[in-house]
Amino acid sequence: MKCKVCKKKAVVSLPSHNAAFCPECYDKFYMKQVSEGIRKRKLLERDDKILVALSGGKDSLSLMYALAELGYNVTGLHIDLGIPNSSEKARSVIEDFCSEHGFKLIVSEMEKEGLPMPLVKKHIRRPICSVCGKVKRHYFNKVALEHDFTALATGHNLDDEVARLFANTLRWDQSYLSDQGPLLPAENGFAKKVKPLFRLTEFENANFAFLKGIPYHHLPCPYSGGASFTGHKMLWRDLEFKSPGTKRAFYEGFLDRGAPAFAAFHEKKGVEVVPCTECGCPTSAGVCGVCRIKSQLNEALEEEK
Amino acid sequence: MVEVRLEPRGKEITFTKLNTVLQLLNKLELRHTDVLVIRDGELLTQDCRIEKDDKIIVRNVMSVG
After folding, report:
1. Which of A84, A219, A278, B57 is paired with B34 by a 20 to 30 Å CA distance?
2. For A161-215, what is each residue's pLDDT tens digit?
């Protein structure tokens, strides 16, 4: 197979773009997808101070690398969840990556915050992925605001976004559909959130990480078995195989034609956001979800004594 | 004998004969955008030929949490 651009030997073939690329041309293709996505959806300004959430996987590390290559001011944030045989490996990968490339890194340890995931999993009777996601989003926002970052960037890719959109559409969840997209502007105590990899698939990010020599953490989270998103991704994998480009058309079609309608609905409904009475973080309840989890966990630990 | 290592599980499989990457993927019931296929530190597209005694890594790209 030959590179579509320069006709050298190709190493990556992308049916959705009806193209194959050599390493040099793939780099240009990838960086263009990131920069065009940022430009067309107005995700970032040149002077944004960006906090990049780093999990240690291919997507977040590729995002950090690409944003730095594009000249943005980036700092990494890793949430150490304290999961045995997993968290220390992910953290080590991130620390090595940031050290090698000279990137600043902030690590927030859930053990020190009184929320190590093994204890949360043991004592909180809710799906662990949902609680973990809530905790991570809480600290992403908290750290971003405390350190005066103007944007929080996450490595969500096209597959993540399509799986989420699909799940929200299956339930016709108007509230979630109203704010799904690669840009959530800063408001009500929330930092601006962006997903600059929304045009790139997991496969495309994995190829980029490999070709850039970025070692990444690719073992699944030991607590993630049976996550429903994985099933949705498998359905889309089959659709995309039969009709390459469907994933992208579905997502971009939603952004152009579906999202504005749901956003208008959300504006009408309006939900009041106030500071949490415990920690001051924004919430639609009196006490935020994370403070409630902390409180439930403390009660369970007291009972156990 | 072609040795194939499946990541991240670390499972190893051997094949007596394989002609192309596409044939390997078909045998593993994978689509080419599911995995990176790596030989000697280089990525292979599905039309690449596989030689006897090749050692191949097939790395799943789907995040599951």
Report:
1. A84
2. 999 999 999 999 998 998 899 999 999 899 999 999 999 999 999 999 999 999 9
- Judge whether B44 and B37 are in contact, CB under 8 Å: yes
CA B19 to chain A, closest CA, distance in angstroms equals 15
Contact check, Cβ <8 Å, B36/A1: no
Instruction: Look at residues A144, A133, A152, A139 and name the one whose alpha carbon lies nearest to residue A64.
Output: A152
Closest-CA distance of chain A to residue B60, Å: 9
**A67: Cβ contacts below 8 Å, ≥ 6 apart:** A34, A50, A52, A74, A153, A196
Separation CA B60–CA B42 (nearest Å): 16
pTM of the model: 0.94
Both tokens of residue A186?
Answer: 């800063």
**C-alpha to C-alpha distance for A25 and A215, rounded to whole angstroms:** 21
Q: Do A59 and B63 touch (CB under 8 A)?
A: yes
Answer whether A275's CB lies under 8 Å from A141's CB.
Answer: no
Taking an 8 Å cut-off on Cβ atoms, the answer to whether B7 and A210 are in contact is no
The phi, psi pair for B58, rounded to 5°, reads -115, 110
Residues from chain B that touch A13, judged by Cβ atoms under 8 A, are: 32, 45-46
Helix (H) or strand (E) holding B57: strand B55-60
- DSSP tag of A255: I
Contact A59 B45 (CB under 8 A): no
Interface predicted TM-score (ipTM) of this complex, two decimals = 0.96
SS3 A36: helix
